[in-house]
Amino acid sequence: MSFTNHNRLLSLTRQLTSYVNQGYHEQALALFHHMQTSVVLDPPVFPLVLKSCAAIRRTQLGAAIHALVGRMGLLSNPFVACALVDMYGKCASIDVARRLFDEIPQRNAVVWNAMVSLYTHSKRVREALLVFDAMDVEPSTGTFNSLIAGLAGVEDGALRAIRFYRKMGEVGLKPDLITLLALLPACADLGSLNLIREIHGYSVRKNIDPHPQIRSGIVEAYGRCGCLDRATTVFQSMQQKNVVPWTSLISAYALHGEAATALEIFGQMELANVRPDGITFLAVLKACSHGGLADEAIRYVKKMHEYYGLRATSDHYSCLIDVLSRAGRLSEAYKIISEMPVKATAKSWGALLGACRTHGEMELAEIAARALFEIEPDNPATYVLLATIYANAGRQEEANIIRSKMKSVGVRVDPGGSWVE
């Protein structure tokens, strides 16, 4: 490579890096086409351009680059190979990425991590663990981070996520910001207050604590475990608070029945000129539901739409229907279900049906049950509740018919399997 070509390649590669890092992927690909005709390409160019291919799903171009690096003999370059695996996993399929992964002659930790990460992001954690077990190089912090995040995101995975965190320490690897962020939800799921304190202390000692993401995560974790004072202390120590920590603190107080405090915090958030999002309003509506504040819930849904221009989702409407149903305002709840712009979920109908049992409302109970039979025909809670409502009304024959129907369609009662809180 001539000195002139080398300097030009460096300049163009810097420009390409800038485009990719800023998310200007179309410009990055256009520059790559120009580079192909003006300079002799070297290996660092290809991971950059493959990242852009993955970001905007340019599978055909990615495959053409695959062929090109194959002709150039660069498949043994672990960084090029890693980018190819990642591109195929995001643009084509995990299975195509796995076939390429199996063909790579030299796989360092970066390549192994790419495959593990693709599996965990696709919720295929079992296969990620099999890849981990097959690694013939030392795993890195990134390997453990992917597995911890993947395990924390699946049912019954929290305890295994914590075990991998311990294993990480056993092999001499130090947790970083990504590790702690992945681990905190698992700790909260298990109610592991001691481990949350351990993570909090570690983040302070290693100066990770000032990062707003970790503080927001710690606020949420303490809050979910019921340590509202600790959650509030960490929140108040934050110099800059965006919507995430505000929402975490509101959710914490709402979760533990402190509706008035949750709504007070929301008011403080508005005074601080922090714009709430849909998740914030979901936390506010849950506070209203737990506090039996039906009128306030109606007001917040209206404010959400009219003042902030946010569209209520089925989750928001489920909370509103729940609070109205709990308050015995069944006709209003049914009117909202009938008129709301999104399809009513089983949770909405279930809240109404549960309230019908409490208030002895037969007509709406039958309407709600019919809807639930269509949405969740195998949910035993619908059959049990409707039969109970009939029996309580002295309509034993109808109650027996529902129980017989439940048996005939093979629906079994699963303890705890209900949408009724």
From TrEMBL:
The keyword Repeat belongs to this UniProt entry's keyword annotation: yes
Signal peptide coordinates: none
Pfam family, one: PPR
GO terms of molecular function: RNA binding
UniProt keyword annotations, A-Z: Repeat
Cytoplasm found in the keyword field: no
Placement of PPR repeats on the sequence: 140-175, 242-276, 313-347
InterPro entries tied to this protein: E_motif, PPR_At4g14850-like_plant, PPR_rpt, TPR-like_helical_dom_sf
GO biological process, one term: RNA modification
Gene3D superfamilies in the record: Tetratricopeptide repeat domain
PROSITE patterns the UniProt entry points to: PPR (PS51375)
NCBIfam families: PPR (TIGR00756)
Protein's name according to its UniProt entry: Pentatricopeptide repeat-containing protein
Record organism: Linum tenue
